[in-house]
């Protein structure tokens, strides 16, 4: 019945968490990773990646806005979700995550974006009329204080926010890892490494996303891509990927060596039901190939054009690979029985609330929001050659 | 105060956040049920909700209040500890008088075979029969009184 | 007045009062009214269950009774209690064959003759009402909890349907009721035990292989039972404080 092999406890046959719950760690991971990239410039003074600073923040915001949506769609009673804020159970990682999310959105991301864009917003507020004026008035909190001293203060405060933001970003996605890693009932999930693995795979996916967005946006609007910028981002992607890969290998080797009671059941699952998503998509296409391509660009010499193409391929495969990793954690953790005697099948629906179509929509939505944000708050660094498209085009 | 003037916009952020916290605290007062937290991190009324579910099986003691003759019959029976509703089904409504229709008598075979049909996984000491070796046709009640089944 | 008349009045008075009290209690018991038995005090009880594997005959009456008593969905994917059948080859104990057709609702078909190295038995499963329950630990809003008398319950009015608790239960005893989109599970028939009745599964088990116990009541037979039998809980390594004690539990049971 229902694609069951062996024995599953009767209540386990249907999966509890669907593709929506795969999306959620994927999206929050992109947020955390994008933010870490932005912080490279701000806190660690890696000025060569300055062109991506604002873009990374906007990307993080676009995805963070969408992050709660798969959760809401999944809940049996989404109208009660506010209860997590009213009566949070302090022993529940899920409840505490609600506050981490709120803190990160309001206290870090929105504040940092606001501080960075404030001068432009105030200028627009002063220059506009009617509805636009109301709109910008709200965005600036009706303060037009943009004296050089005020802006210098903004810069200082912004730096502090970014510094606090780095551990906050780790907390944001580490917490998601902990939500899975703290479940002793599930040996596929239960691991102290889980938050760390999630953090590093988040960094990998976020850096890859911002790199791709930078290339796509700059190329799409006719602006010249800064190769030193992209090269640096790609090298950070490579190093983060190495760490992520090593962590996952440590977990794997540990499992194989200790071979506890769950090992044979999990091993069988990986070789059968999870073969395509784990071995092919995550390990081969999603990790080994991008790592090799990135390593090649570090070792061998390529033309700018060739390198850019390699980065795009590596970036896209990375995004697929990290998605596959989330899939393997969430879905994989539910395909085997807690009796270790059987397996079930995930029957993904198409058009229902938790089906494939809403998931595809939710993955496209952040790009739509990002497009709107880019229109509203252009990410081209102020005063740089990118700020004026005509200047770039004239230079050829 | 130059410093304060420079940070006037930041003050607005602080005020905005403070307002948010205030709204949250008010919402909490309003929306959290008053009996939440009485015994632990849950709504105490949930205990009452759990207790208020309707009873479907009356229980052996309830049957004995009226059917004293059957109680007497079962006193020396192997089935003494088998609750009436195992064979007769849920009868709380009958015991309370809410349902005055006469409950349907179980047929003299299905209920018996549910327990006594041979199955290799049952404990060996439990009385089981293989149908073809044990008067295959006809109801069990033809030979066994269900309330005191031993054939002396 | 003389002794015999006084005695008569005393006896009559007692009878009237007792009948009155009994009828009130009886009404409460049978009508399923919200009020508990007049003297039910949560602090006096700490509920537990005993399952005697050596007596279970896999008839499935407990499964049917539970579904009837508690309005559980009748399909094969939602059970508050179910029965498993184990077939173990003693030469290969790490790979028992386990099945639970429709949770044991319709009993089990006979396997016929087994080879001499096989042993087979039934294992009823239900919520273990863990004292250190991992499902309670992870609930984000306090919609599931351990009651003061030791029963793990669900508040259907607060449950979000996030299913975190279903993931956290090591025993697979929780499920989402598709009709309410909230979590449901065995409540130890809380509406019955607070009125002095037995849970439906205990009441209707024909071999008395299920027994309700009150660990706080010094006169409860559970204390003597635990002292004189070798009992185990399921997955003791999880340290959940499970309170469903199995007598005769084989080491192969998962």
Structural overview:
The complex is a heterotrimer of chains A (396), B (152) and C (254). Chain A has 396 residues and is mainly alpha-helical. Chain A has a domain at 18-240 and 350-385. Chain A is built from 15 helices and two strands. Chain A has a two-stranded antiparallel ribbon. In chain A, helix 5 crosses helix 6 (130-139) and helix 9 crosses helix 11. Chain A is globular and about 70 Å long. The termini of chain A are far apart. Residues 390-396 of chain A have low confidence and may be disordered. In chain B, helix 4 crosses helix 5 (68-74). Chain B starts with a helix and ends in a 36-residue tail after the last helix. The mean pLDDT of chain B is 91. Chain C is an alpha+beta fold. Chain C folds into two domains: 1-35; 43-131 and 187-247, Alpha-Beta Plaits, CATH 3.30.70. Chain C is 26% helix and 20% strand. Chain C contains seven helices and eleven strands. In chain C, strand 2 and strand 3 form a beta hairpin. Chain C starts with a helix and ends in a 7-residue tail after the last strand. At the B-C interface, helix 3 and helix 7 of B face helix 1, helix 2, strand 4, strand 5 and helix 5 of C.
Quick structural overview:
The complex is a heterotrimer of chains A (396), B (152) and C (254). Chain A has 396 residues and is mainly alpha-helical. Helix content of chain A is 71%, strand content 1%.
